[in-house]
Amino acid sequence: MERDACIISLDIGTSGCRAVAVDKKGCRVAQYAEVLSPLRPSKGCSQYDGESWLRIQQRVVRHVIDQVGVSKVAALAIASQRSTVVLWDKETGQPLAPVLTWEDGRSAQEAASAPVAQPQVHQITGLYKTPFFSASKILWAIKHVPAVAQALKKGTLLAAPVPSYFIWHASKKHVFATDYTMAQRMLLLDIRTRTWSEPLCKAFQISPSILPTLCSSADDFGTYEYKGYSIPIYACVGDQQSAAFWQQLEKGASCINYGTGAFWLYNAGNKSALLDGMLTSLAASEADRKQDYLLEGTVNAAGSALLWLKTKGFSFEENEVQSLCEKSKNPVLFLPALGGLGAPYFDFNVSAAAENLTPHTGKSDWVAGVVRGIVCLLADIGTYLQANGFPLTGPVAISGGLSQIPYLAQFQADVLQRPLIVLSQQDATVLGAAKLAARHMQWDDAAWHTTEVTSTVEPQMLPAEAQTLYVSWQKFVQRIRTGK
Questions:
Q1: Which helix (H) or strand (E) holds 137?
Q2: 109-162 pLDDT per residue, tens
Q3: Rounded CA separation 320/142 (Å)
Q4: Could you give the count of Cα atoms lying within 13 Å of 14 in the half-sphere of its Cβ?
Q5: Which CATH number characterizes residue 226's domain?
Q6: Is residue 332 domain-resident?
Q7: Residue 215 included in any domain
Q8: Cβ contacts of 202 within 8 Å, gap of 6 or more
Q9: Model confidence over 331-351: pLDDT tens digits?
């Protein structure tokens, strides 16, 4: 392998697809991205056209391979959005239904009517029975898309998370596999045995025969043939777990990643931990190491809440958010429950709501209110963890695009009354996947920069003031949820 060999890491996000070439020192040497916008044909629906979506992924990867030179590519790695599911025919390779994203809620009835209780689902999968995970989406497609039902009857139906579809095509149909972090989001995986759960497959009327082979996150996922070269695929991992792997999240430590949604990850160690109101996710895994469990709290709308605000007639650019927040004199009290409330409530009957409106409320008050709402929902998760025996140790690391807004970072530190470490590296997702592939090839990654710190943010608000503000927030959420 050449001295300047690199790994191409593909990040398949909700609103974009990008690839980054990472060299043997863990540095980015090339990158390329394209916008990837899901279609929203009606309320509660979010989908991609499978064929055009795959072409974008392939084009992004090839663009970066060509930038660095195919002879220098040692491996491919993939990090991906989770819970989005693809159904395709193994004979034709064609998608048989729209690719339903993790945001899609059209299978609510299938989720609700599946004959398995929530406590049992949580015990087996670490997740909850909702339409946002893949199992009910698959059942919905079997019921409502004739081509899917026909392929199932014929024995040619395959159903899997996003990376599996890319890998299957890249390997010329030779590899049908996924890793445990992606498989878990299908709501069909037993996280203790790391096998497909017979009771859940039965409850959702899904045959394990249509599901992918299960692997560690760093594993052999076949080869991608390109311009006469065979490029091994050595990593497949969920986006949040990839970011946590890059940040080297130790037991008892927490990180928050602000993207389309926001995610609080708490490393509970290698003994399975369950907590009502939180998801238990499997951490990124290597074949020769024990797999950690992450308690995960989700805020369904973070970056998407600001995008939603734009659809309501408030025009602003991303780089204006800080100045608008600073101008606000009376922020709106806003609950960003777009798509319902995530952890620790998991209440999907709640919609976005606002209070504290006056005749003088303006754009800056709305923007500041949305930012504060995102922060406070994350504070709900941190408070809940501590109240249930999971103490927060050390500063909380924050990453993702919104983490670079000083107003948001300061308000998060104030409400939590904890210092934050703001990570400058906004490519944690692609770098985490690349590092998994590097480990699999036994590259020396000791010098890879895993904790590039932009700044440390200390609380500035007095504890009594922070407590008063937070109690006011909790009462607001209670009013919205109960109508009282």
A1: helix 134-144
A2: 999 999 999 999 999 999 999 898 999 999 999 999 999 999 999 999 999 999
A3: 45
A4: 22
A5: 3.30.420.40
A6: no
A7: yes
A8: none
A9: 999 999 987 899 999 887 898
Q: Which residues of 61-86 are buried (b: 16+ CB within 10 A; e: fewer)?
A: bbbbbeebeeebbbbbbbbbbbbbbb
Domain that holds residue 44: 6-237
Q: Write out pLDDT tens, residues 418-437.
A: 999 998 766 888 999 999 99
Structure tokens at 268: 């509970």
Q: Is residue 394 part of a domain?
A: no
Question: Interior CA angle at 255 toward 253 and 258, to 5°?
Answer: 170
The length of the chain, given as a count of residues: 484
Q: How confident is residue 287, by pLDDT bands cut at 50, 70 and 90?
A: confident
| Structural domains of the chain, count | 1
DSSP 8-state secondary structure symbol assigned to residue 196: E
Q: Per the domain annotation, does 11 fall within a domain?
A: yes
63, two tokens:
């663009």
Exposure of 5 by Cβ count < 10 A (0-12 exposed, 13-18 middle, 19+ buried)? middle
Provide DSSP, 238-278. EHHHHHHHHTT--TT-EEEEESSSEEEEEE--SS----TTS
